[in-house]
């Protein structure tokens, strides 16, 4: 078992990564002084609950906790205010109070949804993340929680740090292949923004990672979480550095939104976004190898690096305008400098974005 | 003009109370370094907007701000997730970004709703309170923001302090009489929990306050805000002392909920709740004069002190169970010790509450 720490003063918390952790949930709860006097709400989704909910319930109950649960539909569409209200109803009917804990047992969707419930139920209660996807190594760390608005992703949310992250890697064995790839996209991102060696390690271990080799996974998730934890520790509420975690996300979020949160998985959308960022860097004078290395790495994981032709360029632009507000026709973008290093660029123009969309559709001229 | 300060370290902020302040909104915005580069969203309701919105818009625009507005239906029903989503849509369509400011121009309903929008739009933007009711001298100070859940009041919210409170007492002249009384109920509460002299001042100046005498109002609001500011400064997130602000609110919130948020105004419901708290204190051995003085004071303002017979006792109890969770059949209550002083009692039983409900219906035996 590995333990990392997210260092945030009196809101610091540990990330436990290892096997068989769900069946020890109760012990971890007690160790973290979460009260047994108030009910615990476990939020999960229809795919995950049948597999793992009972294990968590049994362990918590054995440690003296009373539990209630709320199982939502699987998929990004559950990150909505309607489902948020459903979960709130479960919290109220389950008799939760100000001292209660809300648990997210699931991927990034459940984590973001349950986290916003924890942030706003009675103005904030304790929160525990139990990630069950690879992608959630990213989403479960850092305290960003949110639901989507019809017009743009993650518009409605809070910063609400968990009391701990309990990452049982056993659960990953049941992940559908497409979600495996999608999750690895964020792992690669952590290499690309921060750690050249780790990026190349990902490339060289693509097959093991895709085959869900436990040792490779544990290593990759620990490294990924560790990059995330470092960045978040130095800039909790995204005043500066934390923005680098958004590599690929400006265009990625726009693609998710215009795909109706159904066409692309999050990791797929940001894979395209990372390819776009690399192309933008090249368009601005970086060596073409940055684009080639980035897309080759992503392609090794079967991740997409082009924009499907049927998507409308101006719809992508307009979704992006909602997401991260251009100011005076300029927008902040994260661009690679080389593998393992990025820069925050704040003068990207709409025309440059229009150009890269065309390039990623194979319509424009590659530089 | 009077200025008070809510003392919360780097989240401290001023409360400005005076005449003609709305027409100086823009100057106050500039003075508080709120950026002119990002659009400002003004949230108001259908009664208030026709009277005061244009003044604020004109002043902000004259100072270089771009404004958008969202006008919701008047009344407690607008403190819902549905209306919250509407306001979020206005924020997104209005092009707000992370540096934007959300303004609440209205009473407690608009303040709580707009405040929760400010707390959660893009995970939190600046917030300015421009209260237009007497009641809002309470709600605009302290950073508690929330919407209601069908099952219980204020269940979904956050702590989100404003950058300033701009309280233009001129607006109070157009308040409907019932809202004047309702608002004075919270003013009286501030006397009852903290300041004997102020409580008696309220009693002796009831006629001037009800007649909206500007001098009396300004004095009463300043004293009321000052009690609130002191309590909040010493306990921002209600770990202890802040609970005394809930005098009358346990039963009050239950009455509001079972009245479908339509039968009672907030101040009316807590007036009944304060009478109930005084009766509970007497039932527990305090001198009967505490009940008589409290109800006489409230009656001088035309505020209700009895529970209407048509309300079902067990429905009141069950709404209360949702609101402030009984633990092992006991609940925290704020009870008067004497006029100007309260205590936090944490062993109130359901049976004692049942008894007081009967007493306030005129059914039970008064002690
Ligand atoms: N908060 C953050 O900082 C942050 C960071 C990155 C991503 N995100 C968000 O995360 C979300 C994507 O997360 P995700 O990819 O985990 O999506 P997800 O939660 O929808 O999970 C993907 C799919 O896998 C299923 N699943 C989950 N665990 C499983 C398991 N162990 N076995 C079998 N099936 C399982 C789910 O039911 C779902 O169908 C997006 O909404 C994204 O915006 C948030
Ligand atoms: N956040 C807190 O700490 C806190 C504290 C106390 C109360 N509250 C909340 O405040 C709410 C009650 O506030 P309220 O009584 O101000 O209600 P409100 O906002 O509904 O205003 C009362 C009525 O007066 C109208 N109105 C407002 N200003 C006016 C004006 N200047 N001229 C004419 N009409 C005007 C409104 O349209 C409304 O019909 C409740 O939801 C309560 O829970 C919150
Ligand atoms: Zn992401
Ligand atoms: Zn109140």
Automatic annotation (TrEMBL), chains A, B:
Keywords, comma-separated and alphabetical: Amino-acid biosynthesis, Aromatic amino acid biosynthesis, Cobalt, Cytoplasm, Lyase, Metal-binding, NAD, Nucleotide-binding, Zinc
EC number: 4.2.3.4
InterPro entries membership: Dehydroquinate_synthase (IPR050071), DHQ_synth_AroB (IPR016037), DHQ_synth_fam (IPR030963), DHQS/DOIS_N (IPR030960), DHQS_C (IPR056179)
Cofactor binding: number and manner: Binds 1 divalent metal cation per subunit. Can use either Co(2+) or Zn(2+).
Residues binding Zn(2+): 186, 249, 266
Domain 3-dehydroquinate synthase N-terminal: 71-181
TM segment ranges: none
GO biological process, one term: aromatic amino acid family biosynthetic process
Location(s) in or outside the cell: Cytoplasm
Origin superkingdom: Bacteria
Top enzyme class: lyase
Chemical reaction(s) catalysed: 7-phospho-2-dehydro-3-deoxy-D-arabino-heptonate = 3-dehydroquinate + phosphate
Pathway annotation from the record: Metabolic intermediate biosynthesis; chorismate biosynthesis; chorismate from D-erythrose 4-phosphate and phosphoenolpyruvate: step 2/7
Molecular function per GO: 3-dehydroquinate synthase activity; metal ion binding; nucleotide binding
Cofactor requirements of the protein: NAD(+); Co(2+); Zn(2+)
Binding-site residues for NAD(+), renumbered to this chain: 108-112, 132-133, 144, 153
Pfam families: DHQ_synthase, DHQS_C
Residue ranges constituting the 3-dehydroquinate synthase C-terminal domain according to the UniProt record: 183-325
Cellular-component GO terms for this entry: cytoplasm
Database matches in Gene3D superfamilies: 3.40.50.1970, Dehydroquinate synthase-like - alpha domain
Function per UniProt: Catalyzes the conversion of 3-deoxy-D-arabino-heptulosonate 7-phosphate (DAHP) to dehydroquinate (DHQ).
UniProt cross-references to HAMAP family, sorted A to Z: DHQ_synthase
Family per record: Belongs to the sugar phosphate cyclases superfamily. Dehydroquinate synthase family.
Listed name of the protein: 3-dehydroquinate synthase
């Amino acid at each position: 078992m590995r333990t990392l720490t997210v260092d945030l003063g009196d809101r610091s918390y540990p990330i436990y990564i290892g096997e068989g952790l769900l069946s020890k949930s109760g012990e971890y709860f007690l160790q973290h002084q979460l009260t047994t006097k108030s009910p615990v709400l476990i939020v999960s989704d229809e795919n995950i609950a049948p597999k793992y909910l009972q294990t968590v319930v049994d362990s918590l109950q054995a440690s003296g906790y009373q539990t209630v649960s709320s199982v939502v539909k699987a998929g990004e569409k559950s990150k909505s205010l309607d489902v948020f209200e459903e979960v709130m109803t479960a919290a109220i009917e389950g008799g939760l109070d100000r001292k209660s804990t809300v648990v997210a047992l699931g991927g990034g969707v459940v984590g973001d949804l349950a986290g916003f419930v924890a942030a706003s139920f009675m103005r904030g209660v304790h929160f525990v993340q139990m990630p069950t996807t690879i992608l959630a190594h990213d989403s479960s760390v850092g305290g960003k929680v949110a639901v989507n608005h019809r017009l743009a992703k993650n518009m409605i949310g809070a910063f609400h740090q968990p009391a701990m992250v309990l990452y049982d890697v056993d659960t990953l064995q049941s992940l559908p292949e497409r979600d495996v790839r999608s999750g690895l996209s964020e792992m690669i991102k952590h290499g690309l923004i921060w750690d050249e060696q780790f990026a190349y390690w990902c490339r060289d271990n693509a097959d093991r990672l895709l085959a869900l080799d436990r040792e490779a996974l544990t290593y990759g998730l620990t490294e990924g979480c560790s990059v995330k934890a470092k960045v978040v520790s130095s800039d909790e509420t995204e005043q500066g550095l934390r923005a680098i975690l958004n590599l690929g996300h400006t265009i990625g979020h726009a693609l998710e939104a215009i795909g109706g949160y159904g066409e692309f998985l999050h990791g797929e959308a940001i894979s395209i976004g990372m390819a776009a960022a690399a192309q933008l860097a090249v368009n601005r004078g970086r060596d073409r190898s940055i684009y080639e290395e980035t897309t080759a790495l992503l392609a090794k994981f079967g991740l997409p690096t082009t924009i499907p032709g049927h998507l409308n360029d101006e719809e992508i632009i307009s979704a992006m305008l909602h997401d991260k507000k251009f100011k005076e026709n300029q927008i902040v973008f994260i661009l690679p400098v080389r593998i393992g290093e990025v820069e925050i660029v704040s003068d990207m123009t709409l025309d440059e974005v229009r150009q890269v969309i065309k390039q990623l559709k194979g319509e424009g001229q590659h530089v």
